[in-house]
Amino acid sequence: MATLLLSAVGTALGGPLGGAIGALAGRAIDGAVLGGGRGEGPRLKELAPTTSTYGQVLPRHFGRMRVAGAIIWATDLVEHRESQGGGKGRPSVTSYTYTASFAVALGSRPIAAIGRIWADGNLLRGEGGDLKVGGAMRLHHGWGDQAPDPLIAAAEGLARCPAWRGSAYVVFEDLELGDFFNRIPALTFEVIADPGAFTLQDVVDPQLAEAAVALPGIAGLTCEGPVADVLRQLDPVLPIACDAGGERLVIARERLQDAPIVLPEAAVAVEDDAFGGLSGRTRRREALPQAAPEILRYYDLDRDYQPGVQRATGRMASGQPWTVELPMAMAATDARALAETVARRAGWRRETLSWRCAALDPAVAPGALVTVPGLGGRWRVAEWEWRASGVELTLERAVPTGADAVPAAPVDPGRINPPPDLPPPPTTLAAFELPWDGTGNGDAPTIYAAASAETANWRGAALYVDRGDGALEPLGPSGRTRGLIGEAETALAPAHPLLFDRGAGVVIRLVDPAMDLIDASGRQLALGANRALLGDEIIQFGRAEPLGAGRWRLRLLLRGCGGTEAALANHVAGERFVLLDGRPVALDPARVGSVPGVQIAAVGFGDDAPVLAPIALRGVGLRPPAPVHPRVAAAPDGALELGWTRRARGGWAWRDGVDVPLQEQVERYIVTLGDPAAPAAVWEPSEPRLALSAATLAALPTGALRVRQQGSHALSEPLFLTTLA
User: Fold this and answer.
1) At residue 229, what are phi and psi to the nearest 5 degrees?
2) CA gap 140, 142 in Å, rounded
3) What's the pLDDT score for residue 49?
């Protein structure tokens, strides 16, 4: 505020020069009142997506980190075309999907494994190693003897295909891009470079045994520059002593001896430029900082490596807080402990002491704890230099025992909404043929497949036809909308097809307990609501009573719909239930064929083998419904007059009270006496009646008379007329 105010006043009084002078004075006032924000360490980066830039540095990863990587090879998008439908009287639907193959370099150091992969913020690969979309993934760990990737070698030629030895990379082959707007998504990878704990030796140089320093609490880090940058990052939270005075470079944590080394009295120097003069020592204390380090920023393991913040306990200082940036992955509890430790150490290291010794002690090396005559407390050797006047030591005040102890306090890492990571469920499949509905061409069957799964993360399946020869011919995708499929826990009792079944109903268990069924009114039932296939019978239900755990009791039933009354008494527990709404997928009957025993197969992400389902109600679409309303009348001369009422395929709505159109080439019936498979007598009338004279009846044996309608493609189910005694 003072910067803006004094800048405006200075400009008004002295022009641009006065404005500049006023701004400088205002910034000084703002800094004194508000305090300047202080940051320690490199800035944390937000999670960056995968890029592809020439000259991009490939970092080295240690432990577990979430990284973006760089695309080093890619193909053009590949278009896949699939046509579905197109049978007689049905339009053909062509769908297009796109895939891409590409390679992503992850780091310039070998890694052990890859964990999760995020694409546009959603999971592309789960914790269990399953890809959420179609395609294949191969990991090249980055060892010095790794072979070229076979896909890249096939595309570019072995002579032009590098193996990228020493660099870890991932190759995606034919990755489906439908979920990513048909483009390569922005990817981030959970890299597991070291399955166990790693040390500073792994970071600095694996051959440097003197740097085997444990890094407690740090689960992962990424090194994009020189090793000195890593040491500077660690220094605020894990002070490290480096000793280059001996024959070897020694890098170690702060030493904690059993007892500090007692230094001799300070030596006097005679040089004019020597510190301390006749005392041989100089003590300095930096000014107390306006604010102690309060905040530690890091990558939180519990929040999918998103930047996290932990604040040390205590009274907050005025102005902007002092923030320590630690671009490393760790848990919230470890980050809180480091934040507390840094805050408590900040005030002690500001006091330094220069001390001159007359003799060289090899034990007094950088990092050693010492005490000096005449001054209390312990000091740590930061530097030493051998000069003509003696050994000059630079000492820092050591933190007293217990001064940096972490208090017991609850730790909250914060919450995120992670993308669901559910294993792909197996596919549940049902295939069936439905009676012709009167639209389009009635000379082709209407075959459907209903696919579903027990959880909502099911991503659809590819449908095939299996004709029994071991070959699977593709029929197209099932779509991602799950059908309402289940099975009967009880056997539905027989009932009359012309009346509402108000009995006990049937108990259904759906494949997913989260699926719902709803009630339907009488008008809605008349319009075709709540149609379902139960076994080989099509029913409609007016009441759906939830029983819990995905179980429903269906009551107020309409039975034998669509001419399926022959299955009224054939129900058993465990038979398939499918709701006949808009979710089942229509299949091309020409591709399915008419071979006996043909089955429909489905292959989804969670299926180890194709899921097979026979086609229920096979032939019902081309078979005329059985005649109804049998009539038998005896004539005075002993003749027998037989009659019945025909029904027609597709004529389910009886709108005008007269016969519906025939839908067959000719009207013809077959009346049999006795066993229909081996009848004693056969008549083929061309109208729904048959007259048997007394002489004919006298010559016939006893048995049941049945009638079937002869359709253009099949015979109807038989209708019982009467029994000849």
Assistant:
1) -65, -40
2) 6
3) 61
**Count of CA atoms in the C-beta half-sphere (13 A) of 552:** 25
For residue 415, the SS3 value is coil
**Given a cut of 80, is residue 246 above it in pLDDT?**
no
Is residue 606 within 8 A of residue 468, CB to CB? The reply is: no
What's the N-to-C CA distance of the chain in angstroms? 114
The predicted model gives 426-452 an average pLDDT of 90
Least confident of 278-292, 444-458, 679-693: 278-292
Q: How many CB atoms lie within 10 A of CB 528?
A: 15
State residue 44's pLDDT score. 63
* Residue pLDDT, tens place only, 174-200: 999 988 989 999 999 999 999 888 888
Sheet holding 599-604, edge to edge: 472-477, 461-466, 599-604, 611-616, 428-434, 446-452, 585-587
Residue 361 vs residues 46, 173, 391, 515, 687: alpha-carbon distances, Å: 49, 64, 9, 80, 124
Strands 322-330 and 293-300: parallel
Is residue 16 very low, low, confident or very high in pLDDT (cuts 50, 70, 90)? very low
Question: Position of tokens 């990052």?
Answer: 233
206-196-145 Cα angle (round to 5):
55
**CA–CA gap between residue 366 and residue 393 (Å, rounded):** 9
- What is the pLDDT, as a whole number, of residue 541? 96
Nearest to 328 by CA among 116, 49, 62, 117: 62
Strand, coil or helix: what is 590? helix
pLDDT computed for residue 20 by the predictor: 46
**Beta-sheet strands, E only, within 562-709:** 576-579, 585-587, 599-604, 611-616, 628-634, 640-645, 669-673, 681-683, 689-692, 703-709
Surface-to-core class of residue 716, CB atoms within 10 Å of its CB (0-12 exposed, 13-18 middle, 19+ buried): buried
What are the structural domains of the chain? 2-34 (no CATH), 69-84+91-185 (no CATH), 229-397 (no CATH), 428-616 (no CATH), 628-724 (2.60.40.10)
Report the number of secondary-structure helices (H) and strands (E) in the chain: 8, 42
Residue in the block written with tokens 């002869």 = 710
Report the C-alpha gap between 121 and 718 in whole angstroms.
Answer: 61
Residue 451 scores a pLDDT above 90: yes
The CB density around residue 71, as the number of other CB atoms within 10 Å, is 18
CB atoms within 10 A of CB 93: 12
Rounded Cα–Cα distance for residues 625 and 17 (Å): 101
| C-beta separation of 591 from 465 below 8 A | yes
Please give the residue that has the higher pLDDT: either 646 or 313: 646
> What length is written for the chain?
725
Least confident interval from 9-13, 210-214, 299-303, 325-329: 9-13
Higher per-residue pLDDT: 579 or 286: 579
Lowest mean pLDDT of 211-215, 377-381, 556-560, 714-718, name the range. 211-215
Which of 124, 110, 107 lies closest to 67 in space, CA to CA?
107
Q: β-strand 306-311 against 428-434: which pairing, if any?
A: unpaired
Nearest to 323 by CA among 34, 47, 37, 44: 37
Encode 589-608: b = buried (16+ Cβ within 10 Å), e = exposed: bebbeeeeebbbbbbbbbbe
